[in-house]
Write a structure and sequence with these properties.
With about 210 residues, this protein is of the alpha/beta class. It has seven helices and ten strands. Helix 1 crosses helix 6 (about 180-190) and helix 2 (about 50-65) crosses helix 3 (about 80-90).
């Protein structure tokens, strides 16, 4: 995952500042999966802050230019990646498509919304990567349509080993603007958490399904 050290910390600072990411190791959240988690992430909040939204759009555009080059299409993963993908597509002057989790049960039964042709290259935009399973379903759907997926850019990743393996197995490069390590460094620096919290947070990342069960 190639990103600028300073940029990664700046994005992490913004996410903490607007409470898009919350850290509560002593009072954990419960995810839909049933996992207990010391972290909760809702990066869609960035869309409500024009200065932060602009910074993130610019960073995604720069990340695409530096890591992949200009694609034919920008694809957002529903729902969190759609708005950022639209902003990025507008910046590049490129067509936008988005990918549903599943095919529609009515009408054309499409999973991909928008105009796409076999052989087109595409960059996929996500807001958050956890295990990577839902994100990579979008990659599979695009490949089934004959698209050449150059890679995925996401705002944040927890950095689970399962996720790293999934992206390697799918031969889909993933680049993120920031990650769990950068977030913790910024959280310590800003006194959002204490050094004593780090052990618990790192233990969670090693085995999130078993943490505090």
């Amino acid at each position: 995952m190639n990103y600028s050290f300073n940029s990664a910390h700046k994005v992490a600072e913004f996410l903490l500042q607007i409470k898009a990411i919350l850290l509560k190791p002593e009072d954990p959240f419960t995810w839909a999966s049933g996992w207990k988690s010391p972290i909760y992430c809702d990066n869609r909040k960035t869309l409500s802050y024009p200065r932060i939204r602009t910074f993130i759009r610019q960073e995604i555009v720069k990340t695409i230019d530096e890591n992949f080059g200009r694609p034919d299409l920008i694809a957002g993963v529903a729902t969190g990646g759609i708005a950022q993908a639209a902003l990025v597509a507008q910046e590049f002057g490129l067509p936008l498509i988005y990918v549903r989790p599943n095919k529609k049960a009515h009408g054309t039964q499409s999973q991909i919304e928008g105009v796409v042709e076999s052989g087109q290259s595409v960059i996929v935009i996500e807001d958050l990567v956890s295990t990577g399973n839902s994100s990579l379903m979008a990659v599979d759907a695009l490949r089934e349509q004959g698209c050449i997926v150059k890679g995925m850019v996401a705002m944040f990743t927890y950095g689970f080993e399962e996720s790293k393996k999934n992206f390697l197995d799918h031969k889909c490069p993933l680049v993120t603007l920031t990650d769990f390590d950068s977030l913790l460094e910024k959280a310590i620096e800003s006194n959002y958490i204490q050094e004593a919290d780090l052990e618990s947070l790192n233990e969670w990342r090693k085995n999130p399904s078993a943490w505090k069960q």
